[in-house]
Amino acid sequence: MTRFAPILKRAQRRAGGAEALEAELPRPKSGAEIAALSDDRCLSLMSRRAFRAGLRHALVDARWPAFEDVFFGFEPRRVRAMSDEDLERLVSERRIIRHWGKIKAVRNNAAAMIEVSESHDGFGAYLAEWPTADIMGLWRDLGRRFSQMGGNSAPSFLRMAGKDTFLLTDDVVRALIGAGVVERRPSAKDERAATQRAFNDWAAETGRALCQISKILALSAG
């Protein structure tokens, strides 16, 4: 596997220098900041990510105040208590994006979030406690517990919440292939394990967060 120094140099050249690159890099929240996230804000972020999938983010974001209104501020217990008729009425609500599967997923995810929250003293604590050395395990757990959290949605939600994670964008996958980590987009168990090991090794080598390594990889290849 390629060491990270040459990858970093390529990214610096393409970004216009070391200082320009550093200015582009994301910064994850601390564990304490993530643990302090309220369940309603976590449900709002998760739902926003679900509705963003396949759509322009700006379109979804512009309508998000209306989503907050019709879903009671995403307070999980109030959302869980919504009836089928309540959800069906939202399909006619012109202020929001009327996607039945995603509307229904909000209630499903509210119920799942309450369950997780009760066993971890808050959903934010559940996110904060999960070790970044097994961040792909958290992706899988979110995909198993929650609706509309498959594919890139789980890591994208985590990035929105401030949890340190990498993203498997096309550019990141190209960089992983170029570094000899995988031969294709990682989907098999051994490929995903190799990907997690590579990010862990690069994090140990550089002292950088996973989200920064991910961004540098993308810039080095894109």
Supply database-style keywords.
single chain; 222 residues; mainly alpha; Endonuclease III, domain 1
Outline the secondary-structure elements.
Layout: H1 4-15, H2 18-24, H3 31-35, H4 39-52, H5 57-70, H6 76-80, H7 84-90, H8 100-120, H9 123-129, H10 135-145, H11 153-161, H12 170-178, H13 189-206, H14 210-221
Tell me what you see in this structure.
By secondary structure, the chain is mainly α. The chain folds into two domains: 4-28 and 166-221, no CATH class; 32-130, Hypothetical protein, domain 2 (Endonuclease III, domain 1, Orthogonal Bundle), CATH 1.10.340. It has helices at 4-15, 18-24, 31-35, 39-52, 57-70, 76-80, 84-90, 100-120, 123-129, 135-145, 153-161, 170-178, 189-206, 210-221. It starts with a helix and ends with a helix.
Structure described in brief:
The chain has two domains: 4-28 and 166-221, no CATH class; 32-130, Orthogonal Bundle (Endonuclease III, domain 1). Helices cover 68% and strands 0% of the residues. It contains 14 helices and no strands.
Task: Tell me the helix content.
Answer: 55-70%
Shape: elongated
What characterizes the major β-sheet? none
Low-pLDDT regions: none
The number of E-state strands comes to 0
Indicate the mean pLDDT: 97
